[in-house]
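Page header: ASSEMBLY MODEL / two components / 536 residues total.
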Amino acid sequence: MKLSPWLYTVGMFLFWEAACWLFSIPVYFLPSPTVILHAFSEFRIALWENSIQTLWTTLAGFGIAIVFGMILGLIIGWSKNIYNGIYPIMVGFNSVPKVAVVPILVLWFGIGWIPAVLTAFLISFFPIVVNVATGLATIEPEMEDVLRALGANKFEINMKVGIPRSLPYFFGSLKIAITLAFVGSVISESVAANKGIGHMMLIAQANFEVPLVFAGLIALAVEGIGMYAIMAFIEKRMTGWAHRSDFSTQQV
Amino acid sequence: MYLQRTTFHPKQTGLSTEESVKICVNPFVEIENVTLSYSEEIRDTAVQELSMSISEGEFCAVVGPSGCGKSTLMKLVTGLLFPQTGEIRVDGRKVNSALKIAGMAFQNPVMLPWRKTLENLLLPLEIVSPHRERLRREKQTYVKQAQELLKTVGLEGCGDQYPWELSGGMQQRASLCRALIHEPKLLMLDEPFAALDSFTREELWCVMRDLWQKKGFTVILVTHDLPEAVFLADRIFVMSSRPGRILVERKVDLPRPRELDLCFTPEFTSIVHELRGHISEARA
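Prediction written out in full:
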């Protein structure tokens, strides 16, 4: 069972290779996997350094997004009034394509890693906020009633029921947020940076080093998949309880 | 810990509410002419001029057609809702905030799935006043108390399991334990057995009967199951349909301790039949 994704992936590369060979696709258009592999080995130092750069800017932006997202999510989910008031602003903010924000960031902070980290942050905090706020705002009334009947105030209810209840939503949003953060930092690197895979791919394209462009692409894919997998693993460990049904079927 | 049960029953059955209120000396729960409406519309009036009086240590049941305001009544007594007119007094004091001496169990067990069953039971102790300060120091005593309770309802050893690992009946038993952990004087039950199959239900009737017999708290059981009411209660209040008020009060004289076989005796069946008649009239 678990072997099957690997088999399909290998199959896909074989198909790619075969197609390039069969249709004699030129290297500067679509390099075949073997050529890309060669580029990996030829440019391995550059690839490695730039991958690390992209990785850490992504993680830094993501980290800020988690902290900020949780805090803002808690504030918004706490009170219905704030929820109704801030939500439209957030939706509006989120609708602006972040690639348009990068030039502004460059104006403020110059070219380099700062705009990359900030773009990663700006793109990825929204899902976290929404999920945390939704998790808090949708506590089942019965659960609240159990505590209210004992005389608990809003703070206690949110601490004891609201926050644990929201954790599955929070961890679920991390998977989305990390991929978005990744997008954010690559966009920023492509537009205005001096390091990072996005930047490297642009330079490679300008020099017609097409295999390197694709190698960069594959490096990005590996990083993206790896980060997603780690987040999914963390989610499963922390919120295993939420993936059972709340009321199990009758056991005889 | 528990006061002696000073049960006082009006000797006759079928007393009108006014008469029984006058007779009930030393009432523990008093509901006087209470009206609650969810909005301006007449049809949203849940209860209208409802009056009830319950003595300490009594086991009372409230029955009535669907939507007659039984759950609203529950929330009024425990201070989750407040009446627009009339007054509710529990233990001599007016109810103007959530009652801390009450335990509640709902139809839905509502266990917190991220906590183990034992930790779920300890939840009220983290909130209700004398216990929350003592909890850290005396954790072991409380844990032992919780395990004792679990044993009484037949869930010995289940404390370490998560609620979703238990069956529906077991979760409901745990929910009853949770309602009793802080040793409340008043237990409110809102159709707690409605979602269970009939064998589990009968088992839990016996569990409830034994718990009450042992601990002596006052119980208000809201149910639509007439045999359940007659089996468990000392007195049964029949509510009218919305807007709800008490139509009839029926004392259940059947001797205690009551066994399940009682459900098939003619006296039992005739009481159920009589109540059913009242409810049919109320629904009409």
